[in-house]
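Appendix B. One record, verbatim.
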Amino acid sequence: MIGFVPTMGALHEGHLSLLHTCKASCDIAVVSIFVNPTQFNDPKDLEKYPRTIEKDMTMLIGAGCDVLFYPDAAEIYPPGEITRIYDLQNLENLFEGTYRPGHFQGVCQVVDRLFPLFSHNRCFLGKKTTSNVW
């Protein structure tokens, strides 16, 4: 059984907790680190997002990650490929969507592109709260 933990990097204990849960119930744990540009409506926010790949890799190795997938934007969003738009209704305006228009469209777009890349049986996602809004 393969488990998948998608992240945007800048890993912390919450991410490692997801990895530990994944490892406990799956034979192989895959973690992705991809800072998804479509989740940011302000290019300055995307630019400021922390990228700590060396530290992240050290943490993942220590926590027993089996596979790290670390693509670049062109690999996830190939030039010329049509980007799907999702009917999210009021979700567009809640939580991060209130402060970052298009955020949830970006989340759906990246999940729609990441999931088919792995024959995973389970996906492990963190809980988001309003305190995570920035």
